[in-house]
Structures are given as structure tokens and as C-alpha cells.
């Protein structure tokens, strides 16, 4: 842990009430699984979130999934005061109340396009499209070589995005088409500003989390201590390289959060 990261950690421990702790869901709190509907929190994850909720000023899950879906799947309603920012900040769930915008016109117009474009490009039958209402996601996880398959389909996917005013965002064995203006960096900046956070931790595992890391780095440069944590995996080595600290998957994240909670209690 280098000096800026150590300063971020020490600031979190010294001032829990001023801390913002924000975490991705898939790959960070919950192991990645082939069927996303079966992605439940790692052992100990909910318990340590409850402990942190009693200590930190702001505790948030920042995810690309729909907020209500993550709350139900993860049992997150049992964590007092937790904020869930869904679909890269387009949705917010807090205290049982969900705020969600109208469906973007580009998504409405594009809804039928990805399956047709993928079929025309000769996509592997194991490729499938998830409709998140505010975004469309092309999944290649079930193919023999997800990265190669997505690379081959990239021109077709980009044509669909360009035609309908959407942005293609690559991730771990997926590419998401969503309206411009939403990323985890914007969410982190907004949360920190709203709470007046005096120290920040953000943990992620995928390319979509790198804007969140960048936001922590910007906050740090402006005087707010912070630390970035990667839940490391072979599929997204660039994420671990960018983070201050890399841990071994969701189990490693839970261990780190337990350590943080324990030190905050000392």
C-alpha cells in the first residue's frame, strides 16, 4: 500500500462518520456466476455491511444492475441506511424507496436491434442479450472464448449503438449499450459531495469500475483522502493494476471490510 492509499485508509479509520464506503456488487460483494440471477453475496458480506452501516457516514452499493434487482437478490434491504445506486447511477434505492427515470428513447428504439445484428454477424448461439430497461447488455459468458467472441461482434454492436445514440461499454465478458452520461465516477463524486465525505473507499472488479477509481484519485488530488480496492480476477487484470490495493475476489473484499470495521471500532 503506497503513501496516498495508506493515508486514505488511516483517514477512514480515524473518522468513520466522515467516511464514504462504496462497493460494486457483482464480483465484489458477490462471486461472478454463469447465471446472473444466482449471484448472491459471499459468506460474511451482509454481516460486515451491517457492521459498517453502524459506523460509517455513507455506505453505498454502486452497480450496473437495476437497483431493485440487486436489493432483492442480495438481501440488501437488511442493511440499515444503505444506498444502492443502480444502472451506473441512473437509479437510486434508499430506505425502501426506488427512484428511476423514464426509459431512454435510444434504448426503446434499439431494443430489437441487437439480436438481429448479432444473428446477422453469425454470433455464437450462447450469446444472449439482457434487457435492463435503461440499457441493453450483450453477454458472451457462456461461449467457449468470451473475449474472442465479443471482439468478433464488436463492429456490429458498435453500429447498433451509434445508430441509436447509445454508448458501448465493455465489461467482463459483456458489452453494455446505455445512454450517455452515466458512470460510476459520477456516482462517487455525487455521493461524496452530498455527504461532505472526508475520506473515501471504492471497491470494484471490472472495467466499468475504473471511472470510480478515477473519481477517488481526483478527490484525493483535491484534498480528500481515499483508497481504491480491486477484487482481482484474471478476466480484468487492468482493474487490479489501476487500484491501490488488490484482494482475492469477494472473499478478500469481505476480509478487508472486516479489518476496516474492526479498526474503526478500536
From TrEMBL:
Gene3D superfamilies per the UniProt record, alphabetical: HAD superfamily/HAD-like, Trehalose-6-phosphate phosphatase related protein, domain 2
A GO molecular function held by the record: metal ion binding
Enzyme class: hydrolase
Cofactor: Mg(2+)
SUPFAM superfamilies with a match to the protein in the record: HAD-like
Function, in words: Removes the phosphate from trehalose 6-phosphate to produce free trehalose.
NCBIfam families in the record: T6PP
Similarity remark: Belongs to the trehalose phosphatase family.
Name the UniProt record assigns to this protein: Trehalose 6-phosphate phosphatase
UniProt organism field: uncultured Mycobacteriales bacterium
Amino acid at each position: 500500500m503506497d503513501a496516498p492509499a495508506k493515508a486514505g485508509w488511516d483517514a477512514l479509520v480515524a473518522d468513520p462518520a466522515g467516511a464514504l464506503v462504496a462497493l460494486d456488487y457483482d464480483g465484489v460483494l458477490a462471486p461472478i456466476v454463469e447465471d446472473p440471477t444466482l449471484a448472491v453475496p459471499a459468506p460474511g458480506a451482509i454481516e460486515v455491511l451491517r457492521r459498517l452501516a453502524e459506523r460509517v457516514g455513507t455506505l453505498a452499493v454502486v452497480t450496473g444492475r437495476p437497483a431493485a434487482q440487486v436489493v432483492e437478490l442480495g438481501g440488501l434491504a437488511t442493511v440499515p441506511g444503505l444506498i444502492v445506486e443502480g444502472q451506473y447511477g441512473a437509479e437510486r434505492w434508499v430506505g425502501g424507496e426506488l427512484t428511476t427515470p423514464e426509459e431512454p428513447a435510444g434504448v426503446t428504439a434499439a431494443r430489437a436491434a441487437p439480436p438481429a445484428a448479432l444473428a446477422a454477424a453469425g454470433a455464437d448461439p450462447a450469446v444472449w442479450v439482457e434487457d435492463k430497461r435503461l440499457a441493453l447488455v450483450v453477454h458472451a459468458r457462456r461461449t467457449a472464448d468470451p473475449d474472442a467472441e465479443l471482439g468478433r461482434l464488436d463492429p456490429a454492436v458498435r453500429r447498433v449503438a451509434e445508430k441509436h445514440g447509445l454508448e458501448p461499454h465493455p465489461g467482463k465478458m459483456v458489452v453494455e449499450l446505455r445512454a450517455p452520461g452515466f458512470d460510476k465516477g459520477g456516482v462517487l463524486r455525487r455521493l461524496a459531495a452530498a455527504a461532505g465525505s472526508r475520506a473515501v473507499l471504492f471497491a470494484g472488479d471490472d472495467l466499468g469500475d475504473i471511472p470510480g477509481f478515477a473519481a477517488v484519485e481526483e478527490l484525493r488530488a483535491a484534498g480528500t483522502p481515499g483508497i481504491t480496492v480491486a477484487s482481482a480476477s484474471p478476466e480484468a487484470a487492468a482493474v487490479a493494476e489501476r487500484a491501490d490495493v488488490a484482494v482475492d475476489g469477494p472473499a478478500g473484499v469481505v476480509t478487508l471490510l472486516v479489518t476496516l470495521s474492526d479498526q474503526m471500532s478500536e
